[in-house]
């Protein structure tokens, strides 16, 4: 895939996980919507912005975002579309209420809820067959002692291949958002080293270029990502998946400002 240029939108997304209550989520979403309505980077299409709140807030957040280009995501989905699956949420219903994309395979889901590769592949399949864009989290568990990113590239691209395999076999695959989140950087005070991020993202992009069934996919970085990272990446980071650093909407504005400057200097 080509390097990020002014013609290639930077993808910026935020997952709220389970940090906010309902009222605060709606206040936050309204603030983000106000930013999106006026910020040149969003209005020009230089940035594609998405937000992922909790399940109970999806419908009201969808209403709050009406009239903006901000896309709405869900934090998970079931591998089944209907049936006796207490506590699960189907991709069919998510699409019905206006969800655009769905996060799958986050490290917390894998470690806390023991999601297997088979579970994840089923969820990716469910997303595709219901017209939802999969946001697939990939990342190595251990930090390489020698700092060589090649092992990370090999591990995370193998993860990606396993996760999309069922959808590919059934001819359902399409563009994904591959969110590179090294597990050792999630929740850390600082993101992974800049050059490591750049090298691994480039490796994932190169791998995706060999998978025509995933054409149109984008690669972004998560894992303690925050303001300043896009600037330091100098056009080599195609997007960010933000967590707690975006709890203050002002931080999102700062990152959008960075993206706008990068586009102007490209």
TrEMBL record:
Query: Which pathway is recorded for this entry?
Result: Carbohydrate biosynthesis; gluconeogenesis; Carbohydrate degradation; glycolysis; D-glyceraldehyde 3-phosphate from glycerone phosphate: step 1/1
Assigned EC number: 5.3.1.1
Among its keywords, does the record have Protein biosynthesis? no
By its UniProt entry, which InterPro entries does this protein fall under?
Answer: Aldolase_TIM, TIM_sf, Triosephosphate_isomerase
Record SUPFAM superfamilies: Triosephosphate isomerase (TIM)
TM region(s), chain numbering: none
Catalysed reaction equations from the record: D-glyceraldehyde 3-phosphate = dihydroxyacetone phosphate
Supply one GO molecular-function term. Answer: isomerase activity
Q: Name one Pfam family in it.
A: TIM
Q: What is the enzyme's class at the highest EC level?
A: isomerase
Any idea where this protein resides?
Cytoplasm
Keywords of this entry = Cytoplasm, Gluconeogenesis, Glycolysis, Isomerase
* Family statement drawn from the similarity comment of this UniProt entry: Belongs to the triosephosphate isomerase family.
Task: Enumerate the PANTHER family for this protein.
Answer: TRIOSEPHOSPHATE ISOMERASE (PTHR21139:SF2)
Quaternary assembly = Homodimer.
Protein name, per record: Triosephosphate isomerase
Organism equals Curtobacterium citreum
